Amino acid sequence: MLLTIDVGNTQIYAGVFDGDKIKASFRRTSSGAVTSDELGVFLLQVLRANAIEPRAIAEIAIASVVPDLTRSIANCARKYFCLEPFIVGRETKSGLFIKGGAYNGLGADRIAGIEGAIHLYPRKNLIVVDFGTANTFDAVHKSGEYRGGAISAGVGMSMSALASGAALLSNVEIKNPGRSAGMNTTTQLQAGLFYTGLGSMKEICTRLGKECFRREDYIIIGTGGLGRLYEHENVFKAYVPDLVLIGLRELMRKNTG
After folding, report:
1. Alpha carbon 243 to its chain's center
2. Is 217 labeled as catalytic in the residue annotation?
3. Helix, strand, coil percentages, rounded to 5, for the chain
4. Domains in the chain, please, with CATH?
5. Which of 87, 137, 167, 171 is the most exposed place for a label (fewest CB within 10 A)?
6. Facing residues of 29 across strands?
7. How far is CA 182 from the centre of its chain?
8. Could you give the dihedral angle defined by the CA atoms of residues 143, 133, 65 and 84, in that order, rounded to the nearest 10 degrees?
9. How far apart are CA 120 and CA 239, in angstroms?
10. SS3 (DSSP) at 235
11. CB 48 within 8 A of CB 12
12. Which of 109, 130, 138, 242 is catalytic?
């Protein structure tokens, strides 16, 4: 079995593949210092809780945007699973082509997400939207050529900024309030966060489509935990919560056989 691990600034999202099927997936916070032993104990416990014997893990693949955690997870893989992990980096072979030959600062999670989208929707012009601490937008031509992208503050980060910067505002549950005209501070915050996120996503995707694909058709693929907020807003061709993990599986296959 393959253990795939997506390390973000807010959460670690992991999944276990048995062939092409995900047998289990799980999350934990990535904030603060996390040691390799803490991660090892967490992974052993959560695997067994999902009826997966840790010794059945034969490979581990990691996409991380937090360097300190990358080292901790790599050491965890060596100590607790006796495996040398595959880590997405600048030299990783993928189905993505960028003029100049470098990834131009694209994070490992974005590379994996794009790879997952190319695998699920081959020979399609793609816009991949990943909702996390930051929202990332990536346009990829059906040939595999990277055409560009954008980065914006995630909905959770916007909420935190409002709560920390305004004395009378506090954190609220981030959800679709059902209407833009809220009748109290809570629903007004929810409306502002939800519809600002929806409107900016539509605008950025429309502009990327025009700039990167001209008159060619394209599809929009959503992923990331908070992407589920917009799953039913008629923006995405598909919302694929495990997109980065699927991409990690495919990158592992391409780079290690």
Report:
1. 7
2. no
3. 40, 25, 35
4. 2-87 (3.30.420.40), 108-248 (3.30.420.40)
5. 167
6. 11
7. 31
8. -90
9. 12
10. coil
11. no
12. 109
Tokens of 157: 């980060």
In sequence order, what DSSP letters do the residues of 46-101 get, joined into one string?
Answer: HHHHTT--GGG--EEEEEES-HHHHHHHHHHHHHHH----EE--TT---S-B-TTS
Q: In what order do the strands lie in the sheet with 126-131?
A: 146-153, 134-140, 126-131, 219-223, 238-239
Beta bridge partners of 250: none
pTM of the model: 0.92
pLDDT, averaged per 10 consecutive residues of the chain (257 residues), comes to 93 94 91 86 95 96 92 95 94 85 81 97 97 94 95 90 86 91 93 94 96 95 92 94 96 89
Amino acid at 83: L
CA angle (86 as vertex; 80, 90 as ends), nearest 5: 140
Maximum Cα–Cα distance across the chain: 57
Residue corresponding to tokens 């959770």: 156
Contact (Cβ atoms closer than 8 angstroms) between residue 115 and residue 250: yes
* Distance of alpha carbon 21 from alpha carbon 15, whole angstroms: 10
Token representation of residue 32 = 């603060």
Structure tokens of 161?
A: 């900024």
